[in-house]
């Protein structure tokens, strides 16, 4: 996958993106033929147990990005820019975006609308591919609240304006998070770059879901937009219970799992 191919998919083929944070998950995602992998700053919640994405930094993100690229060397990987890695100064933002690319990502993603467009334009001019992210932007939840965006005319206009200014700044795609379906449709139809929705309805050019959410590992997270494809938490729990029982009952390890078993032992 390349940016050229991603752009060509618009109006031809829907784009499937998921998040991943580690080597084996990335390997599974690549084996499944996923179009794009996002190493999201949602790692803060699902990998590190924090209550928000504000608490993750560059150091941790770089570890996750390196692991994912090792597991999925042939898949287009996007690395999220964590909170305060691009807000403080333009030079810091460009340096951090560069570190994310050096860690193996093929592009970076950052949150924000028209106010980040000048920064995005600088990055793109320096050869850094950027994915935008508007609507509900989790890094600013303390300011904007956790709710869908685009319900009022003012919000709708701001979102459309932001999407257009990001496209003009040079992003190759935009994530629309928790944007009302009519507004997400309007944005998608106004842009020549693909939109990737999460909780933004059916008309985006692609969709993204978080690994732990769609695989049912994040048991207590059940927003309306989520579809679970596995009951991961229960399946993992059952496997651990079975292993634990086998150990306690002397069923594991059996003779097949043993190097040089004791001769004459009648244990299986
Ligand atoms: O961090 C993340 O996982 C994201 C997706 C929800 C788009 O930004």
Provide a compact summary of the structure.
The protein is of the alpha/beta class and 268 residues long.
What oligomeric state is this? single chain
Number of domains: 1
Which molecules other than protein and nucleic acid are bound? 3-methyl-2-oxobutanoic acid
Using only C-alpha atoms, the radius of gyration works out to 21 Å
Largest sheet: 8 strands, parallel, barrel
Q: Please write the CATH class name.
A: Alpha Beta
Distance between termini?
50 Å
Overall spatial form:
elongated
Unreliable spans: none
Helix content: 40-55%
For the biggest β-sheet, the strand order reads 1-2-3-4-5-6-7-8
Mean pLDDT over the full residue set = 96
Describe this structure in words.
The structure is a single chain. The protein is 40% helix and 13% strand. By secondary structure, it is of the alpha/beta class. The chain has one domain (3-234): Phosphoenolpyruvate-binding domains (TIM Barrel), CATH 3.20.20. The protein has an 8-stranded parallel beta barrel with strand order 1-2-3-4-5-6-7-8, surrounded by 6 helices. β1, α2 and β2 form a beta-alpha-beta unit. α6 runs parallel beside α8 and α8 packs parallel to α9. The chain binds 3-methyl-2-oxobutanoic acid. Residues 19, 38, 40-42, 80, 133, 175, 177, 198, 208, 210 line the site of 3-methyl-2-oxobutanoic acid (KIV). 3-methyl-2-oxobutanoic acid binds at residues 19, 38, 40-42, 80, 133, 175, 177, 198, 208, 210.
């Amino acid at each position: 996958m390349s940016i050229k191919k991603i752009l060509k998919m618009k109006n031809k083929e829907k784009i499937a993106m998921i998040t991943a944070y580690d080597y084996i998950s990335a390997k599974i995602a690549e084996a499944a033929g996923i179009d794009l992998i996002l190493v999201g700053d949602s790692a803060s919640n699902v990998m590190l147990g924090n209550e928000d994405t504000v608490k993750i930094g560059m150091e941790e993100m770089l570890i996750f990005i390196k692991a994912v690229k090792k597991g999925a060397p042939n898949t287009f990987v996007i690395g999220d820019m964590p909170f305060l890695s691009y807000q403080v100064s333009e030079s810091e933002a460009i340096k951090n975006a560069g570190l994310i690319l050096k860690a193996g990502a093929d592009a970076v993603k950052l949150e924000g609308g028209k106010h980040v467009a000048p920064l995005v334009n600088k990055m793109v001019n320096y050869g850094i591919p950027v994915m935008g992210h508007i609507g509900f932007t989790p890094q600013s939840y303390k300011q904007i609240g956790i709710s869908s965006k685009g319900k009022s005319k003012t919000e709708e206009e701001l979102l459309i304006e932001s999407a257009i200014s990001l496209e003009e700044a040079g992003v190759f795609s935009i994530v629309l998070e928790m944007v009302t379906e009519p507004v997400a449709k309007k944005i998608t139809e106004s842009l020549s770059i693909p939109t990737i929705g999460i909780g933004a309805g059916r008309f985006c050019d692609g969709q993204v879901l978080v690994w732990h959410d769609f695989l049912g590992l994040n048991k207590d997270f059940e927003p309306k937009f989520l579809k679970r494809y596995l009951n991961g938490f229960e399946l993992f729990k059952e496997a651990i219970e079975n292993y634990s029982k086998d150990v306690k009952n002397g069923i594991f390890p059996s003779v097949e799992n043993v190097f040089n078993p004791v001769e004459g032992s009648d244990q299986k």
